[in-house]
Amino acid sequence: QVQLVESGGGLVQAGGSLRLxxxxxxxxxxxxxxxxxxxxxxxxxxxxxxxxxRDSTYYHDSVKGRFTISKDNAKNTVYLQxxxxxPEDTAVYYCNADIDVTYYxxxxxWGQGTQVTVSS
Length: 120
Known about the structure:
seven-stranded mixed sheet, four-stranded antiparallel sheet, 11 strands
């Protein structure tokens, strides 16, 4: 009964900033890797940033230097700080988490998606 709920999307002008949040709730033993994906209209969903349980991070080249992924373990929340936004960043953003649902098993969960629209 784990659920990931996203927030923080919206409309912003080019050059502006948004911070997305994704909070996991429910019965869980722990959270492993987390990531942010996005899907632009007519395109496939792609990984843009991820963070491991040891806080190692990955960024897609298209967002490197502009986006920052972070997490708050106490709040079971992962964030995506998006600065210097471009119209090309317009997409539905999804969070994903590998969650230990029992002591010995884990599975991936997806957030519901949040729309980010960047106007030029």
